[in-house]
Amino acid sequence: MVLIKDFISYLREKGVSNNTIVAYTNDLNAFCQDLNISLDDYITSTDVRKWVDSMLNPTDIKPLSVPTINRRINSLRSYYSWATLNGKLQHDPMKNIKELKSADEESEKIMWLTEDEFEDLLQIMRKKPIKSRAVDPEEKYRRDRAIIFILTYAGLRVEELSNLKLTDIDIEMKRIRIVGKGIKVRTIPISNILLAEIKDWLEYRNEMSKVKENVSASTFVFYSQRSPKFSVRGIQTMIEGYSLPNKKLTPHMFRHTFCKWMLKATNNDIEKVRRLAGHSNIATTSRYLKDSYSDLADAVEAMPKF
């Protein structure tokens, strides 16, 4: 497994997030285990196609989803591209392997919040009971509310939010500096609505830093009960706890919401939204142009009436 270790070192040098590295590692290990091979063995495109087919048509388990299979394909493509370019292997079996396409050309179901659902969420947050006596209800509410607003009105990925530092927020210039995937830096303007929420949290956080050691020692915008940094998993668990009756919440759902709302606010200016969201490919942004059923229903209802 020397090649995997070298590949992981390469990914870390590129600034790839830990979560992405774990996904790559799991996908490569699954490939090796399923075919009973090693990554330095001679692999053909036929081997890869048989593996893809086994995931689509397994004999004793549920088939994997198209997005999961495509992620595994891309993990292999990245690995073999690196290995051949760096002289680790002579043959790239992924050259003629293409991603799968779902029936509606959209392999990932994009979920976002409507304005009414966002308002319902804020009400749920105000009334959510605190299960632990060690947690200050006001502190938790202020922190969680600030997180929800930043995710929704700035479109941060959960890793970007967890890593957000106090020095990344410029109140005077009304902007947030974000270090995204591949150490790509982007700057997002802070709207007046978001500015009020951020100011409120930072003022409260400053008061907490006077009485809590983990806060005073922290350089991060958000902290947990005992740690100076709110972890990705901690944020995910917190958000899931506020799930709506008919919709399970995830951090990425708020990023979807940001993109969807921004397209509407900019009259479908894809390039503006792409830059704000930090998408490398505009095709990623264009997925949000697909209307929801309620959007289509509103459009039909708006037709002339006689």
UniProtKB/TrEMBL annotation:
<keyword id="KW-0229">DNA integration</keyword>
<keyword id="KW-0233">DNA recombination</keyword>
<feature type="domain" description="Core-binding (CB)">
    <location>
        <begin position="1"/>
        <end position="84"/>
    </location>
</feature>
<dbReference type="InterPro" id="IPR044068">
    <property type="entry name" value="CB"/>
</dbReference>
<dbReference type="GO" id="GO:0015074">
    <property type="term" value="P:DNA integration"/>
</dbReference>
<dbReference type="Pfam" id="PF00589">
    <property type="entry name" value="Phage_integrase"/>
</dbReference>
<dbReference type="InterPro" id="IPR010998">
    <property type="entry name" value="Integrase_recombinase_N"/>
</dbReference>
<dbReference type="InterPro" id="IPR013762">
    <property type="entry name" value="Integrase-like_cat_sf"/>
</dbReference>
<dbReference type="GO" id="GO:0006310">
    <property type="term" value="P:DNA recombination"/>
</dbReference>
<keyword id="KW-0238">DNA-binding</keyword>
<dbReference type="InterPro" id="IPR002104">
    <property type="entry name" value="Integrase_catalytic"/>
</dbReference>
<dbReference type="InterPro" id="IPR011010">
    <property type="entry name" value="DNA_brk_join_enz"/>
</dbReference>
<dbReference type="InterPro" id="IPR050090">
    <property type="entry name" value="Tyrosine_recombinase_XerCD"/>
</dbReference>
<protein>
    <submittedName>
        <fullName>Integrase/recombinase XerC</fullName>
    </submittedName>
</protein>
<dbReference type="Pfam" id="PF02899">
    <property type="entry name" value="Phage_int_SAM_1"/>
</dbReference>
<feature type="domain" description="Tyr recombinase">
    <location>
        <begin position="108"/>
        <end position="301"/>
    </location>
</feature>
<dbReference type="GO" id="GO:0003677">
    <property type="term" value="F:DNA binding"/>
</dbReference>
<dbReference type="InterPro" id="IPR004107">
    <property type="entry name" value="Integrase_SAM-like_N"/>
</dbReference>
<comment type="similarity">
    <text>Belongs to the 'phage' integrase family.</text>
</comment>
